[in-house]
Amino acid sequence: MSRAVWHRALLPRCWFLLLLCPWPGGSHPQCLDYKPPFQPLEPLVFCKEYSKFGCCDVEKDDQISQRYYQIMDYFDYSGYLTCGKYIHSILCQECSPYSAHLYDAEDAHTPMRELPGLCGDYCGDFWHQCRYVLSLLTESEAAIGIEDDRERFCAFLELKDPHYCYPNVLASAELNANLGTVRADPEGCLQLCLQEVANGLRNPVAMVHARDGTHRFFVAEQLGYVWAYLANGSRVDRPFLNLTRAVLTSPWAGDERGFLCMALHPRFASVRKAYVYYSVAVKKEERIRVSEFTLSASDVNMLDHSSERTLLEVVEPASNHNGGQLLFGHDGYLYIFIEQATGAGVETLP
């Protein structure tokens, strides 16, 4: 196995949507949850402009719609006509395929914006027409008392990148060409941009992003270590998880047994649980084990090793039939793949 870990810099965790490099500034379509944009299963009703490709399903679209009408209850008919279009457009940018850029979600050194970044001219028009709606759109302390000052108002809302600010991002032919399609070179080969994010590892088998706003990611080694990497790329000295004493491995280079995968709870930022899949020997019987761990109360870069709760054990005697993928589906189930995709088990989370 490779000693370095690479991630797909274009669209992580997705094979059906690939785009060619280069993009301006190395950027790419990405949603606020760090997942790739998609085509909703059903057309959106409120943010219709993102029905073919974007970051919202019908449930999210309905949530945005409800927020819009709650805000519009403060307006009379003339205010509705004047400001409704601005509020609609601003709220719907959560559905944009470039929402991660509009909200600065990709920049590990800045907090994610509460509102999408606007272009300067558009912000000036918004200020002139509807400046006092800002208090209805955000509760940020930085927005208090700036409605009457255009310079401060737009300093708060403006995104300086002319490519990705709203509405310029919609008008860019370069950014919007072939969104949602697979592109290949003349020989039919799909092309990816790769970036090295970790090295010096021994048999890395899994890489998981925290998706909790910290921009951390975790890399698992077959021997049973899981390492935490911070937003600046540095590795935390102590392992996020150390199961080397429990994991079943051998000196044989082709042995597939060992630590196989890890998945974080879909709401890891609040639920703070991780799920791991590894080989183990129980009374001389070889098994695979899926366990739940809870994040340490005193160290966010370490799991509480005493919190292990076994969810599933299956007899697995073959050293060359250990394909251990863990995935959470949109239905909330944890999917456990056993052997060479010949079977799957499902555990419902509490």
Order of helices and strands: EHHHHHHHHEEEEEEHEEEEEE
Radius of gyration: 23 Å
Which ranges are low-confidence, i.e. pLDDT below 50, for 5 or more consecutive residues? 7-26, 341-350
**Spatial strand sequence of the major β-sheet:** 3-4-5-6
Q: What share of residues is helical?
A: 10-25%
Tell me the total number of β-strands: 13
Distance between the termini: 36 Å
Q: Count helical runs.
A: 9
Binned strand content: 15-25%
Domain module count: 2
Task: Please characterize this protein's 3D structure.
With 350 residues, this protein is an alpha+beta fold. It folds into two domains: 5-176, no CATH class; 201-348, 6 Propeller (Neuraminidase). The protein has nine helices and 13 strands. It has a four-stranded antiparallel beta sheet with strand order 3-4-5-6, with no helix packed on it. Mean pLDDT is 84; it is low at 7-26 and 341-350.
Q: How would the blueprint of this fold be written?
A:
Layout: E1 5-8, H1 58-72, H2 77-91, H3 99-102, H4 120-130, H5 134-137, H6 150-157, H7 168-171, H8 173-176, E2 194-198, E3 204-209, E4 217-221, E5 225-229, E6 241-242, E7 259-264, H9 268-271, E8 273-282, E9 285-295, E10 303-315, E11 326-328, E12 333-338, E13 343-348
